[in-house]
Amino acid sequence: MSEAGKQQDNEFAIQTRGLLKQFASVRAINNLSIALPREGITSIVGPNGSGKSTLINLLSGTLPIDEGLVIIEGMSLRAILPYDSPNHGITRTFQEVRLFDQMTVLDNLLVILTKREVFGSLFEPPRASYRNRARQLLDSVGLWDKRQDMAANLSYGQRKLLEVSRALAMDVQIYLFDEPFAGLFPAMLERVKGLLEGLRRERKTIIFIEHNMDLIRQLSDYTFVLDSGELLAEGEVQEVLAKPEVIEAYLGT
Amino acid sequence: MLEKPVAESPWWRSLSNPRLLGTRLSSNVELLINFIVVVATIVFILSQGSGFGIRIAQLFAIFAILAVSLNLVIGYTGLLSLAHVAFFGVGAYSVAILTTDAAYEQVPGHIPHFGLSFFTALFVGMAITGVVALFVGGVLSRFRDDIFVLVSVGFAVISHRIFLFWQPVTRGPFGIHAIAKPEVGGMVIDSRLEFLFLTLAFLVIVFLISWLIVRSSFGRVLMAIREDEQAIEVFGYKARYFKLTIWVISAMMAALAGGITASEQTFIDPQSFVLLESILLVTIVILGGLGTLWGSLLGALVFVLLNEGMRFVPFLPGELIGQARLAILGIVIVLLMLFRPQGLVGRFKL
Amino acid sequence: MKILNADKRLPALPRSIIGHPLVSIVVAGVIIYLALLLGQSADQFLQFSINGIVIGAIYAIVAMGFNIVYGTVWFFDLSYGAMATMGAYSVFYFTGRQIQTVGRGEINNLYLDIFMGILIAGVVAWVLYVWIYPELRSRINRITLLAVGALVALATGAYTGLILAHPADLNVFLSPTIGLLVATASGCVLYLGALSGIGSGRGLILFLVLGLPGALALGGYSGWLVADTLSTRLYLSWFMGAILAGASGLAIYRGVYFYLRRQARSPLVMLVGSLGFLLSITAFIAIIFSPDGRPLAQPFGTVPWSLAGAFIKPFQVLIIGIAFAIFGGLYLLLNKTSFGTAVRAIGDDEEVARIVGINTPVVIAVIFFLGATIAGLGGILLGEDIGIRPQMGLLLLLKGWIASVVGGIGNIYGALLGGFVLGMVENYGVWYIPAQWKDAVAFVLLIFFLSFWPRGLLPRR
Ligand SMILES: Nc1ncnc2c1ncn2[C@@H]1O[C@H](COP(=O)(O)OP(=O)(O)OP(=O)(O)O)[C@@H](O)[C@H]1O
Ligand SMILES: [Mg+2]
Questions:
Q1: How far is ligand 2, taken at its centre, from the CA of residue A54, in Å?
Q2: Topology classification of domain A1-89+173-253
């Protein structure tokens, strides 16, 4: 690859080329080629069922890619295995919260912090450093007092917060948040906002899906609009949201 | 992870204070259950004499090893396996066959003889079982939920048919007799009491290993796999290898129990390794409580009490005891699923 | 609380690792293997095929019962094994005296009679309450209605108990019911025929003068015929066995599964719960009827027909016929009636079905009744063919389960095909090895199919 090409690649955290995902009857992602900028907060918007979650599922390996390429940090991938996604520097949250329900809040975080090899984890003694890190993360979402509760017994908002903090525990380069603000009360909403902005200060790449226009305007540096699995528009928030086709996609469906 | 909200004072303190014990028991169902079961056992054994006590304890120890090891798979990893009896059987048959000596040349339909000592045979048997379990686990790791259950039943059935019909090696329905007793430092362990101590020692080892496993980071990952396998994979864990590892460990523990049983009874035949035994084990584990090792001990204890207590039910002919036990266990399982899905002292609900 | 999304409700099957090329190689291998067998001994091949088809028909019956339930509520009801055993043992209960029996064959258990009577009364009461009561409650005084309903239920229960208490005279005690059924059916036919053929006014008169007495006479005659002919007992006992199994299936659904399903997080809860029923019902049967196996009276005699060097018993032909009859009946019921539409709607999404106004508990209850009836019938046919044992249900259940996975989970076409495939494979598979390996062969087939063809031969949708 030429010097210029590399330069160009380095501007982007993730690129996709002709990405395609077919479910039984619908094409959730249809020949999508986008380039998600490195560092800063990027938002993905689009009407319900436009394939936003599917995109995140593909990038994180949760769903297998049918066709196309994903280029992460200059590495071209035809398939992403779920357990490889952290190696590519990716972590995520789920739209419908997926915690480890019948484990304590503390364990929900510790399980992310400990070693990943089978035998490494088998012979690893409990470390104070893990606990401290877990405490720090739980404090940041105000759940330290609840650390011994079962995750299933938390309120919806608390579950959402815990899931965000679980993603933060991963300490990677790229964070994919699937509707992290949905259904949160204002106080909790501010908390999550603070966390995302904290990540931006650490020069991480943050990608989030959101339906609320105010939040999108406040947070995102760059925006992609999807519709029926295709890219409708991209660019700076204000100008993208002002485009007639975007307004039509939102209001027309 | 098994930490409970810190109690004001440890429960055994209250043993010396009847009033405190009373309030504790009435407010804590789990403690009450523990208390009842243990007291019932003690009363039962005292009333029947020491010989009986030894027999009960032996039975308990074997079932406890099986239940604890099965709980690692069902309760902690969420794999509802009905194949446990297969590994129990492979362990038992390995020890039985590996310890046969030249005397078997004379037996009609003789089988090859190896003449290993008990402990060597036990060790080799566990290794063999580990390999078998690795293969079985490899096949099973592709399935989940009800299909997993069905395929695991398949392995239980297939293993039973192998014990029954692979006559050149297992002597089929005749079973294998005169299985060697363990020998420690030139002393043969053959009295029931000595054997009980040996078995209990193994139980303690198995329990300790299991406890270390579930308290480790590894154990935490197992629970996460149980809760949401896809989610934990996204965080970089190869769930398949974790499942395989615990599967093999659990199978080897079952093989240990099998080897001890073979030597203790000095005779095994395929009838001890039918699918029904697996079903019984699953009910014991669920009864005691999924995801708690102590619960498995309790489940095994309740089961043994039920088993032996049946003998004293009037009007129940001897040959129906096994059936009556099944009838009760079946009903108990349905009731548990309805009213207490976490089992007697468990925390995890299926 | 985990929400079971559509994705989770689908059977937990893996993705196929290997695509079509290998599948075609395997198919070619199977064909070569079969040709090899045929070349070795055409007679034996034919005999094995017949055996395979006969046992396959029984597997298909059980699998169909399994699949209509699975396709509706998405869990495998393991208590079906017990229902099959129950059907078979009812036949033994009614006809056991006709043959040489061992042990406590001469059983007539009062507790059993009472228990089944109460069970039937309960089921009838519930059916009346959810089906007839809502229709009539606006027109008739509720207290009267409830009292009449309770009386009807009690009477039905008492009648069942009475029949069970006189197993040797099954035909006599059932004859009034048979007569009544025949009279009602023929009366209806004549009534409709008279009305549409002649016109309402004169048709009615003609029906009252000629049709009604005719129908009554027909009913009375058939009742008398049944009561007078001893050999009807066998077929009546099949009927009773299937009905009792079906009613028990319904009772288990309404009594336990209904509540269990509301709190279940995963299909495993249902699986374990139904396993409990399988265990305890099987054990109770063993306690009441002794754990040993025994034969049943063979209908149509034991002399086999010879067929080009192979043999088939007349009764075995009937088994195959019944399998196809059940398939035909279920096909019509599920595809040509509004009930079938409701069943499919519930299978697709129970919540939506409830919202659009389908009475889901009733439809599901009927499905459970049907499924258990069919399972009972499967047990009866197997028992008549090779004898009964309390544990027969467990193995039959596993075979039905395998057949439904091999054929394709959740639809009756797959179940029918899977049953026959399983039966044939079991038989061809033990050509070179002792026949006792059949069960192992069945599971090897299952693992093979799950690995290469995970959705089964005829997947749903
Ligand atoms: N597992 C699946 N199986 C079948 N179809 C699916 C699956 N997941 C998503 N789809 C379909 O793919 C399309 C895109 O879904 P996706 O969840 O990506 O939308 P979305 O943009 O995230 O919508 P929302 O804003 O509601 O979250 C939809 O039509 C959906 O029905
Ligand atoms: Mg979405």
A1: 7
A2: Rossmann fold (3.40.50)
